[in-house]
Amino acid sequence: DAELAAEGDEELEVRPPVVTVMGHVDHGKTRLLDAIRNTKVVEGEHGGITQHIGAYQIQHVHEDSTRAITFIDTPGHEAFTAMRARGAKVTDIAVLVVAADDGVMPQTVEALNHAQAANVPIVVAVNKMDKEGANPDKVKGQLTEYGLVPEEYGGDTMFVHVSALQGVGIDDLLEAVLLTADAALDMRANPNKDARGIAIEANLDRGRGAVATVLVQSGTLNVGDTIVAGTAHGRVRAMFDENGDIVTKAEPSRPVQVLGLSNVPRAGDTFFVTDDERTARQIAEKREAADRNAALAKRRKRISLEDFDQAVAEGKVDTLNLILKGDVSGAVEALEDSLLKIDVGEGVQLRVIHRGVGAITQNDVNLATVDNAIIIGFNVKPAERVADLAEREGVDMRFYSVIYAAIDDIELALKGMLKPEYEEVQLGTAEVREVFRSSKFGNIAGSIVRSGIIRRNTRARVLRDGKVIGDNLSVDSLKRFKDDATEVRTDFECGIGLGSFNDVKEGDTIETFEMREKPRV
Ligand code: GDP
Fold first, then answer.
1. In the structure, what pLDDT confidence band is assigned to residue 62 with cuts at 50, 70 and 90?
2. Residues of the chain with pLDDT > 70: what percent?
3. To test the ligand 1 pocket, which listed residue (20, 37, 165) has its Cβ within 8 A of the most ligand atoms?
4. In the predicted model, what is the mean pLDDT of the chain?
5. I want to staple 332 with a disulfide (CB 3.0 to 4.6 A). Which of 149, 314, 326, 502 is the partner?
6. For residues 476 and 501, what is the distance between their CA atoms, to the nearest angstrom?
7. Is the ipTM of this complex over 0.95?
8. What is the pLDDT of residues 482-509, one digit of tens each?
9. Are 312 and 284 in contact (CB under 8 A)?
10. Predicted model pTM
């Protein structure tokens, strides 16, 4: 709000409220979101072929004027909580769906707790009014105990009777959302500046690259803007609305699908416009480094197979929790049987907390995070995004294609004898053409990349006539002309700084590599 105050009233314009639909499972959240969307989204050029982009905007005729409302199209409070956990405030109003026949259930209470904790006003949609056992008065009585007091009892919470199934009460609900927004909130933003907002969902599309749905919160996003979204950056190449139609700009509260980012941001990541692509890239890289450090800190807290025995000795754990995933159920069962036969020693136990057939999923990683478990993949691998999540969360994942290898590792770990094995993986080589002296960075080797990729912050050695003349070095700086670069590919020229190593000469070869944990198979 300090931001609002600083802007001066004349710049502020009314923006649509942003709404999240929450409530107990099966109370009709998805159905309600669909019903609102189907009756209210203005048809696009594609004639009613809507796309799921994670949010949509509707137009509602309200006292002779038409007003827009944005709905976040991922039902449930998990998305809401995930975004909030990342410090993002997306929602202005929460619609709490309660089935009139079921009444208040545990997740109803959870949802309203989340909304209240975030200071988000609630409108109650008493759903399934078409059902025989519908009892809206009971719902009202129950929710009063949680501080949601209907207007007829002297409170200020609006309750609306709806049937998502029959599409009844939708207009009343939208009316209630607008009234609640007008009464409780300052729904204004300045559209005349660079855009800021939040990423709502994103995925990697084979043909289109990173596809992200973002919600603009202030300013206007234009095609051609450069943005940073979390650790992703890039120039907005194209934007689409919920109908799949091309748009060229997006004003406050408008969700749009954006193409052109370098990679996939996470739900809840903030985005903003930068002056140029270079600034965007630098900010993204800084954020990535910060993320890596955070992941390292987390990793130190989590159990890995290597330090399991140590953790037992220090009294930090007595149970090794495992999640087993395999390509076929027979393999998973065989693996579990063999694992449970391992002699684990006194006071220590092995526990398989989850098993399943198929790729390692985000859910597996989340479970591993919560229960401090190790994931064993037998002939299966995680998708790239899942591997990234595991990396960030510091979850130990191990891959095997032979059951005995898995058993061996775990037995060794239980005896404290498992040491990680590392292997060197060549990344690229460069030939030094000319050496520049720089007082600030040490000598810079003006080079041409001869094979692979030269990447910043990787290990390096220098060879002269086939002999190693400098080892244990690292690529401390990497430049393309005057600009910092993360990586430079074969046949391109670059400037390589190797920290305090200053003996490099024209004709030398710089070899870069990475140490990777050796896969156990
Ligand atoms: P969610 O888990 O909260 O997203 O619930 P869904 O939207 O998936 O709905 C759960 C079930 O309730 C589905 O079988 C819906 O068809 C049904 N349902 C949802 N809304 C209504 C309603 O207004 N009336 C009736 N009779 N059934 C409904």
1. confident
2. 90
3. 165
4. 87
5. 326
6. 10
7. yes
8. 889 999 998 999 999 998 888 899 999 9
9. no
10. 0.63
Tell how far the Cα of 37 is from the centroid of ligand 1, in angstroms. Answer: 15
Q: Facing residues of 320 across strands? A: 350
Is-contact 197 174, C-beta < 8 A?
A: no
Both tokens of residue 194? 């660079």
Is pLDDT at 75 greater than 80 in this prediction? Answer: no
Please work out, in degrees rounded to the nearest 5, the angle formed at the alpha carbon of residue 18 by the alpha carbons of 15 and 21.
160
Q: How far is the CA of 96 from the centre of ligand 1 (A)?
A: 14
Instruction: List, chain by chain if needed, residues with CB within 6 Å of any ligand 1 atom.
Output: 23, 25-31, 75, 127-128, 130-131, 163-165
Q: Which of 228, 219, 234 is nearest to 271 (CA)?
A: 228
Q: What is the C-alpha to C-alpha distance for residues 399 and 396, in angstroms, rounded to an integer?
A: 10
The residue assigned the tokens 């070899």 is 511
Give the separation between CA 424 and CA 517, rounded to whole angstroms.
9
- Are 128 and 139 spatial neighbours (Cβ–Cβ below 8 Å)? no
Amino acid at the residue 2:
A
Q: Strand, helix or coil at 434? A: strand
Phi-psi group of 75: left, alpha or beta (phi > 0 → left; psi -120 to 50 → alpha; rest → beta)? beta
For ligand 1, atom 24: residue with the closest CA = 128
Ligand 1, atom 14: closest residue by C-alpha: 26
Distance separating alpha carbons of residues 325 and 88, to the nearest angstrom = 33
- Copy the structure tokens of residue 185: 């909130």
Residue 26 Cα, ligand 1 centroid: separation in angstroms?
6
The answer to whether 295 and 393 have CB atoms below 8 angstroms apart is yes
Helices (H), 274-433: 277-301, 308-313, 329-340, 362-371, 384-393, 403-414
480: left (phi over 0), alpha (psi -120 to 50) or beta: beta
Answer whether 244's CB lies under 8 Å from 204's CB.
no
DSSP symbol at 262: S
How much is the pLDDT for 189? 92
What whole-number distance in Å separates Cα of residue 410 and Cα of residue 212? 40
Task: Residue 353: count other Cβ atoms within 10 Å of its Cβ.
Answer: 15
